[in-house]
Amino acid sequence: MTFDPRQAFDLTGRVAMVTGGSRGLGRAIAFGLARAGADVVIASRKLEACEETATEIERETGREAIPIAAHVGKWSALDELVEQVYQRCGRLDVLVNNAGMSPVYDTLLDVSEELFDKVIGVNLKGPFRLSALVGARMAEAGGGSIINISSAAAVHPRPAVVPYAAAKAGLNAITVGFARALGPSVRVNAIMAGTFLTDISTSWDPAAFAERAKGFALERGGEPDEIVGMALYLASDASSYTTGAVLTVDGGQP
Fold first, then answer.
1. How far apart are alpha carbons 194 and 177 in whole angstroms?
2. How confident is the model at residue 119 (pLDDT cuts 50, 70, 90)?
3. Does residue 36 lie within any of the structural domains?
4. Cα 122 from chain centroid?
5. Full-model pTM
6. pLDDT one-digit tens code per residue, 124-157
7. C-alpha dihedral, 38 to 39 to 45 to 51, nearest 10°
8. What residues does the Ketoreductase domain cover (predicted)?
9. How many CB atoms lie within 10 A of CB 217?
10. Which residues, 6+ apart, have CB-to-CB distance to 114 below 8 Å?
């Protein structure tokens, strides 16, 4: 079979859901999938933010964008989220588990049980449950792609993000486990993202980050759109023989 990149990367007729899709990397990925032809569901805690992003996507791409308010850290809310998506769209071909959080703390002794549970809930428990619910339906329908947005912190944990790093390491593990459980029809992969210059980065000390970035091969942080190519690859038929993979997009961070 001859590889046709235009056909392989085309998502026309497919439906994708991006959690945490109203800002940061999730927003960039949602726009990218829509530009490739997919209708998209934008799921995040704040409905107004989801609605704003959905309106922008529809205006720019002409694809349908559906905003749904959901807290992925709440196990009991995820059945309802999935049900809403299937009732409104009839199908789901791509799930992007992007929603994440990493609250600031002073020292590890200051990490409360509540903070720890919240970080694990959003970054690991939610993707586990959503992948189980959606993956089962994808398998019944004959296929689909699940993409977990992990972090370089999973393999290079810094003191300021230990709970987050632990959750993302777990996300890498369930990526491989779900790939085996849901194969051969459903593919499950992860993007292990490095440091990206999203809205969160506006609070960083520019000089301190510039010094840290000197240790990256590309000597800079990534722009949100620079993760879209990998997400599109994993969402599309271009990655038909890729599953259980944790692929790094980090500008060559040590």
1. 23
2. very high
3. yes
4. 12
5. 0.96
6. 999 999 999 999 999 999 999 999 999 999 999 9
7. 130
8. 14-200
9. 10
10. none
DSSP 8-state code for residue 196: B
Please say whether the dihedral angle defined by the alpha carbons of residues 47, 119, 100 and 82, taken in this order, is positive or negative. negative
For residues 103, 106, 108 and 114, what is the CA-based torsion angle, rounded to 10 degrees?
-40
Q: How far apart are CA 65 and CA 56, in angstroms?
A: 9
Residue 254 domain flag: no
| CA proximity to 249, closest of 10, 28, 238, 229 | 229
Report the domain count for the chain: 1
Q: Is residue 94 part of a domain?
A: yes
Q: Is the pLDDT of residue 63 over 90?
A: yes
pLDDT, position 205: 84
* CATH code where residue 129 lies: 3.40.50.720
Domain with 214, as residue range(s), is: 5-249
Per the annotation, the verdict on 86 as an active-site residue is no
Among the listed residues 86, 105, 164, 233, the single catalytic one is 164
Q: Strand, coil or helix: what is 190?
A: strand
